[in-house]
Design goal:
Length: 292
């Protein structure tokens, strides 16, 4: 069984737009220990099945199978390639669809990692297919904290002190509904909102806890206010998370997941306790996560 981790966007800045219409972004991608499980088996024919895990926060959304699934597009020939040995892949999902956690991209990246480690693809071939499958997929070939630019395809891993893993405690608020990334960017374009200036970061230094706190104080999600203005549950979740005085609270990517970063497990647990009634009323779920 292979673990397929989710990622959080610790901020999302829109710093420009390309001639083809794609937006230039800046974000710190942070992999977390919340995700899906993938099971690989040899088979007489290639097949991709996708079901909700028993402990998934939500199970109501129907899931795409075979060619309609991003993993299926890779394995069943839509990219002009198929594995030499037929492969059955079972995806046990926990990451909600359209939650801004990169679940579908992570599944595809995890399959490419498996194919690389089992010598069915070279690393170069995996990187090539990852770019074809989606801008976020290359990150999941090596899911480590990374500064991401371009349209998401340029990644610079962050060097950080090992203790940071235990010093950052994440609290996620998951919703049973997705947000539409294309629709959101279309609204952003229609409003002609100004681009943010790029952040000047020293990516050669080794980050310590102080460096991380400094970054969290300076980061932002340029799409958050637009999402929150059209979703009262997301607006309320963000307001509640920020009332607990975290190091940072925001929307992951284009949503719908809201999250907060705390420096201790106790602070996180206290914040989650305050959210109990809120989550019960709005049918959302709190999830604890650490760095992957």
């Amino acid at each position: 069984m292979w673990f397929s981790p989710a990622k959080l966007n610790l901020g999302l800045r829109i710093v420009g737009r390309r001639s083809n219409g794609y937006h230039e972004l800046e974000s710190l991608f942070w992999p977390i220990r919340f995700g899906d499980d993938l099971i690989f088996e040899s088979s007489v024919s290639s097949e991709v099945s996708c079901d909700w895990a028993d402990d998934a926060p939500f199970k109501e959304t129907s899931l795409f199978q075979n060619e309609r699934n991003l993993v299926g597009k890779l394995l069943l020939g839509e990219l002009g390639w198929a594995p030499k040995q037929n492969l059955k892949v079972q995806i046990k999902k926990r990451i909600p669809i359209g939650s801004g956690l990169g679940g579908v991209s992570s599944n595809a990246g995890t399959v490419l990692k498996y194919l690389t480690e089992t010598k069915q693809l070279t690393l170069h071939e995996s990187e090539m297919f990852a770019k074809q499958l989606g801008a976020d997929v290359p990150f999941f070939l090596n899911p480590v904290p990374s500064w991401v630019t371009g349209i998401g395809e340029i990644r610079t891993p962050i060097c950080f002190r090992p203790e940071i893993k235990s010093q950052l405690c994440f609290l996620l608020v998951l919703f049973p509904f997705p947000t539409s990334t294309p629709s959101l960017f279309q609204k952003y374009r229609d409003l002609s909102l100004p681009f943010s200036p790029p952040l000047k970061l020293d990516l050669t230094e080794t980050w310590n806890f102080g460096s991380m706190v400094q970054f969290l104080k300076s980061t932002q999600n340029d799409l958050e206010s637009l999402v929150a203005s059209h979703s009262d549950p997301i607006h309320k979740a963000l307001k509640s998370l920020r009332s607990s005085s975290p190091l940072y609270a925001g929307l992951s990517g284009t949503g719908s997941t809201c999250f907060a970063v705390f420096s201790s497990e106790k602070e996180r647990a206290d914040a989650a306790k305050e959210l109990q009634a809120f989550c019960r009323d709005l049918n959302c779920r709190c999830v604890f996560a650490e760095t992957y």
